[in-house]
């Protein structure tokens, strides 16, 4: 079948547009370098130090990982889908004398091994950020710091956002601002837990938790009394909540999560612990 000229042009334009859109989804966006002032702010906000392993997804010319190595003495790895940028970053690591601590790989970010990361950095478009969110929550250890330039994870809101002034952006000079977002990967506490407070009469309780990222709500049942959980927060492996109910006052619990175990102190100094119910 012969397609008329105008229709053929329209079809070609649509196909080109679809290919471009698919490439943006695959790559996370075109290569746009993060200004060095923003790089420094990202690393400072994440409190990067010599004990850290920084992983940068969409590492471009490698400047975030390289700055972490030269300025903060950290180790790290960058991944990018563009082989020329990966080669450039590895060459720069050699020139700066940090190739023994950092490396760059040509790789799809979804295939990246995140097991060594203590800090994860990103400058990717919103669609890619939201697509990566389940992988990061599943694979990163509790307490890992995530720092992003400008874009966030949608419904997973940052713990902190700062505004950075910079005199260049998108390779253009001028007066610009960038947002730098910080998250701390929360431990998983969703579900039911059997617990007790040492030394308290009727100190045994059942905790039922409904988690939404770094926040949670639920109920604490003790002696047939159901108390509401308020202000439930998780920062890495640290947990805090208040159990309160009519006529019973309130009791604050703080502690740490270690897999299927939670333990800590109440506001009165009593020790508490809980075990996840399978």
Short description:
The chain has 278 residues and is an alpha+beta fold. The chain has helices at residues 5-27, 36-45, 63-72, 83-96, 126-139; strands at residues 53-57, 75-80, 102-106, 119-122, 145-149, 160-169, 172-184, 191-197, 204-212, 215-222, 225-235, 238-245, 249-258, 261-266, 271-276.
The top level CATH class name of the largest domain: Alpha Beta
Shape: elongated
| Mean pLDDT rating | 89
**Strand residue percentage:** 35-45%
Assigned CATH superfamily of the largest domain: Vaccinia Virus protein VP39
Descriptive account of the structure:
The protein contains five helices and 15 strands. The chain has helices spanning 5-27, 36-45, 63-72, 83-96, 126-139; strands at 53-57, 75-80, 102-106, 119-122, 145-149, 160-169, 172-184, 191-197, 204-212, 215-222, 225-235, 238-245, 249-258, 261-266, 271-276. Strands 8-9-10-11-12-13-14-15 form an eight-stranded antiparallel barrel. Helix 2 crosses helix 3 (63-72). Mean pLDDT is 89; it is low at 6-27.
List the helices and strands and how they pair.
Layout: H1 5-27, H2 36-45, E1 53-57, H3 63-72, E2 75-80, H4 83-96, E3 102-106, E4 119-122, H5 126-139, E5 145-149, E6 160-169, E7 172-184, E8 191-197, E9 204-212, E10 215-222, E11 225-235, E12 238-245, E13 249-258, E14 261-266, E15 271-276
Parallel strand pairs: 1-2, 1-4, 2-3, 4-5
Antiparallel strand pairs: 5-7, 6-7, 8-9, 8-15, 9-10, 10-11, 11-12, 12-13, 13-14, 14-15
Helix pairs in contact: 2-3
